[in-house]
Design a protein that fits this description.
The protein is mainly alpha-helical and 493 residues long. 73% of the residues lie in helices and 0% in strands. The chain has helices spanning 3-30, 37-58, 75-83, 88-109, 118-137, 141-159, 166-197, 202-215, 222-239, 248-254, 257-280, 291-309, 315-335, 346-371, 384-387, 389-403, 409-423, 427-453, 468-485. The longest helix is centred in the middle third of the chain and has 32 residues, at 166-197. It is globular, with a radius of gyration of 22 Å. It starts with a helix and ends in an 8-residue tail after the last helix.
């Protein structure tokens, strides 16, 4: 393989998304009529599909045994290998991000198809996806920061693109402020860790931490402990973990529903992927530095997220609090994931994929309601299972899977996390997670009650003629969850 091949092959999915976004902006610069609405959507879908294809193709080229690629070539190539980790784990995470990007494009652009900013909207979506891919593949704190900013900056704009909506502007401001706080905590944590270890490379930091763990003198490394704690806070903000979740319900409610779908799936995956890379792959030999705090955070996240969702009538806020609860389940999966660099946390990949698909499905449905001028309140679902059977069935599949009802994919996702937690001796955490799941059953079943057991108010009937792409997206997402229900071991254990 040539030098440029060794450089471009690992970056191919990121290049596909960045290139697609640049092409859309270029088309907008030529003129609003250079590409039609359909043409812009097709270009964005091609970009996301290329990213998916490149990720699948990469599995045959990743270094054997999940080893870090070492290149004997120009200095810039050697430095690239030190900064960018290309393994089966990172390719899996990039593949799931690319899949989410492909499905979310229709919903995220739905409010802007009649305006002149559709190209910018799609470009921002693709560029934020590239930031997510860079974040989960970074092997150096500088690249982690770059990925985090490339992820965040487009989303700050996307959240506030409804300039005529006060809630959207408020959500954008809150997301920017809390995102800036999270970045500040991350940078301060990196600075303290660098002050202790004199390195920002994750592999070198891992070697240093191994020595610290073997010495048994962890309490003497104050800067390292303080830096790890600050990183727990930063990742807690980005993941929406308790008690750093206060921004999330308002932002999810105020943002366009399609943008919320992208945030709840892609951003959540990137944050969980970063947590896995930092805590499991780097700091696993000193679990006493972060595991006790993480247990309290995860327990509070599961209980608070599900309890708060129970009393919500607005569907966007209910699903927002539900996403907080799911973040707790996902972080529990990070806590019990295998720490060997060659081991693949297949159960965590499976949960991330299932959660992302059902979350995109739920908020794509809400985006459709918003475009139809229907309020996203629970009573709006009354009788929808009969007045619009296709939408009702899709929504039922999403809700039941999110609740963890067997034999749907959501059940197997949670079951595997609980199974690994018990195997790692986290009995108390498993019991708390089970209690949170039981609470979740109540509000998800409310969705089914309104769909099929309440009289329709105003006999609202949504027809596929107004948005066939939305119907197709919802149907494919629901079908994907059904397929994943019979493939719980698709990524291995």
């Amino acid at each position: 393989m040539s030098v440029f091949g060794q450089f471009l092959v690992p970056l191919a999915p990121i290049v596909a998304l960045v290139g697609g976004g640049c092409a859309l902006i270029g088309a907008e610069c030529v003129g609003n009529n250079f590409l039609s609405v359909r043409g812009k959507m097709i270009l964005a879908w091609i970009s996301a599909a290329l990213a998916v294809g490149f990720c699948v193709w990469q599995f045959g080229h990743v270094p054997v045994g999940d080893a870090v690629a070492v290149y004997d070539g120009p200095v810039w190539l050697v430095e690239f290998a030190r900064f960018y980790r290309w393994t089966t784990t990172t390719v899996f995470l990039q593949l799931i991000i690319a899949i989410f990007a492909f499905f979310v494009l229709d919903s995220i652009s739905g409010d802007f198809k009649r305006g002149d900013i559709l190209g910018e909207v799609l470009a921002l979506c693709l560029w934020s996806g590239a930031g997510m891919m860079l974040l989960v593949s970074a092997d150096h704190f500088v690249v982690i920061f770059l990925g985090l900013e490339l992820l965040s900056l487009p989303l700050y704009a996307l959240v506030g693109l409804k300039r005529w909506d006060a809630k959207s502007l408020e959500a954008s401001l809150k997301y920017f402020l809390f995102g800036s706080v999270a970045t500040a905590f991350l940078l301060l944590g990196i600075a303290l860790i660098y002050g202790e270890t004199a390195t920002m490379s994750l592999p070198k930091l891992r070697d240093y931490v191994v020595q610290v763990g073997q010495s048994g003198q962890l309490q003497e490394h104050v800067l390292l402990l303080a830096g790890i704690l600050l990183m727990v806070v930063a990742i807690g903000f980005k993941s929406g973990l308790f008690p750093f979740h206060m921004w999330l319900p308002d932002v999810y409610e105020g943002a366009p529903a399609g943008v919320t779908a992208w945030m709840g799936s892609g951003v959540k995956l990137a944050a969980i992927g970063l947590a896995f890379r930092v805590f499991v792959e780097t700091f696993s030999t000193i679990p006493e530095a972060w595991m006790p705090a993480m247990r309290w955070i995860v327990a509070g996240t599961i209980l608070v997220g599900n309890a708060a969702a129970l009393v919500q009538d607005d569907l966007k806020r209910m699903f927002a609090y539900s996403s907080i609860g799911h973040a707790g389940f996902l972080m529990l999966g990070v806590m019990v994931a295998p720490s060997d660099l060659g081991a693949q946390p297949g159960f965590l990949f499976y949960y991330l994929l299932v959660y992302g698909l059902m979350f995109i499905g739920l908020f794509s449905f809400l985006a459709y309601l918003e475009r139809e001028g229907i309020p996203t309140e629970m009573p709006a679902l009354s009788g929808l299972g009969f007045t619009s059977p296709v939408l009702g069935l899709c929504l039922a599949i999403f809700a039941l899977s999110a609740a963890g009802i067997p034999p749907l994919a959501g059940f197997f996702a949670k079951y595997q996390v609980f199974l690994f937690a018990v195997g790692r001796g986290e009995i108390t955490m498993t019991i708390i997670a089970l209690l949170g799941s039981l609470v979740g059953l109540a509000y998800y079943l409310r969705v089914l009650v309104f769909l099929y057991m309440k009289e329709p108010e105003g006999a609202v009937r949504l027809t596929p003629k107004s948005s066939p792409a939305t119907y197709a997206t919802l149907a494919v997402l629901a079908a994907s969850l059904l397929v994943l229900s019979v493939l719980p071991g698709i990524f291995g254990k």
